[in-house]
Amino acid sequence: MDNEKPIVDFSAIRDALGKDYEPVQVMDGQAKVIKPEIVSKYSNDQLVEFLKLMIWERTLHQRSNALTRQGRLGFYAPTEGQEASEMASNAAMKRTDVMLPAYRDIPQLIQHGLPVYKAFLWSRGHVLGNEYPEDLHAMPPQIIIGAQYVQAAGVALGIKKNGTPDKVAYTYTGDGGTSQGDFYEGMNFAGAFQAPAVFFVQNNGYAISVPRRKQTAARTLAQKAVAAGIPSVQVDGMDFLAVYEVAKAAREFAAAGNGPVMIETLTYRFGPHTNAGDDPKRYRTKEEEEPWFDNDPLIRYRKYLTDQGAWSEEQENEYVEQVKADIKAAVKQADDAPKQKMTEFLGNVFEEQPQNIQQQITEFQAKESK
Amino acid sequence: MSKKTYIQAITDALRLELGSDDKTLLFGEDVGKNGGVFRATDGLQAEFGEDRVFDTPLAESGIGGLSIGLALEGFRPIPEIQFLGFIFETLDSIAGQMSRERFRTGGTRHMPITIRSPYGGGTHTPEMHADSLEGYLAQIPGLRVVTPSNPYDAKGLLISSIRNNDPVFFLENLKLYRSMKADIPDEAYTVPLDKAKVVREGTDISLIAYSAQVNQSLKVAEKLEKEGISVEVVDLRTLSPLDEETILKSVQKTGRAVAIQEAQRQAGIAANVAALIAEKGALYLSAPVGRVYAPDTVYPFGLAEDDWLPAEDEIEAKTREILNY
User: Which residues form a coiled coil (chain B) (predicted)?
Assistant: First the structure.
């Protein structure tokens, strides 16, 4: 009896889990075109615009990094390495879609319509940075890992109930975020309600210091959507066109009323978690980092377009200077923001002021008028 | 006017608001076809359809996040958390998210969400179904915590809460659901938020209570009246922020106060009331502020709950102690 085969072969089931996920790729790290039928859909001018988005994000990162070191910015989560994943996913969405970002998604938020100086004010901890105009369809950056996922399900259900055509909610988290309960609850709610949401997981390898392999026994993060009944895909997160095409298809699928989609982008956080003292040397090796650095998302489209004669070093330098000038102007604008007042804080706790708030407004009015 | 129980008054308020504002949405676990585990939402899905009144998957954090997203899309969500003991699963959505949104966005976005949840002891529920957790909620800036003690207020306060543009945590007392009946108007009416009510006038001592403890306090007041003692009873109704004026005015009149809560003593609403009186009304007092509360233990198992919950005789004893101080 002991040698009899068990009724279920759990080893075989486990070994098959997630095996069917193969990262989508359009152009490899050496600028070799894998899917010419995709690349040929785009003119060189369009591809230049895509490359410029990544150069813009890289420049924003470099300036933000420097400004943080000078003490001119506050909280900053470096984005270097994630330019294709961030810019392509966001470019595939419409500006009428609702974005629910986390704190590393500031570049997408800016491209979605947040003025750069407001992003800087948010970094410094100034509430003006979170005062969005009506037509900026986004929540402020989420700090609590995963909370944006459950809210995205709500926004998506609201879009469905309002009957708004061609509109989705889209949200981002990282590999660590997929371990949170809210990650699953958000996808499950959106799935149960068949609501138009696009869930992005930017798998950048690390949740601060904890590597992806320690987060879960799952072979892929994409397969986590399967339990919620949601279609999902893995994509080379260093490949702009691959992310863009996949995100665009996901958006169309969700906006057409087919329910939510989840996308795992395979990318890498080149720098530390934040600029507040994290040192990646404590938890990862040069040997691990180098192949990723060689896989820099800017390299392949820059090389491709340079080979095509559609992009040059001079053009890039000129563009970078222009971006730097814009950033400089934004810093100046952020510097000009008025000092925050306690009375204004108190006035924004409730719409109708209860007694405790009224009393404290009176107290602070006296102090502020001195 | 019709005679309605506390829970019928709640259903009434929900029906009226679902009927008058098509942006209101009612959702939670078992609130649809089943009408809620206590039938507070009975018949509402049949009347307003599955689009407006619907069951959610079983996940409280999801319910909280869903409410926030729906509010952002212009709806007025009325989620139910099936029992107050389940809020720990969704505290981030309440304390970390919706109550901060107006502040966080400099007043450019708001969250008109009313979370309903039953609570309170004395009905022999399983663990985590009866705890009085209002003290936790009361410390959250940007969130109102409201709890009625009778059918009239249940309807009027719930309508006010739903119409308010900020998040309200609306606590419904389990024991009062079917034990109280009163004549209440059939049409919609409001009872103001942020306002306590003197439910019985008196001159010798103020009993400051809320929810089921108001009714126990009223019984004590009636009993002491026969001895010629004039007891004033204040029903807080909104637990956070407190109506300081009404509390202080009452204490100024009587010079003596007892603050009463069903929750454990540590860091509760009664402590806030006592601190307020100490800070702003100490000179009105002829005696220390008394407090009635449950012991600082975890809520005990069913058979012991009647021994644990503050009873009428404890309120009476504390009232006499402060009167004779």
Answer: none
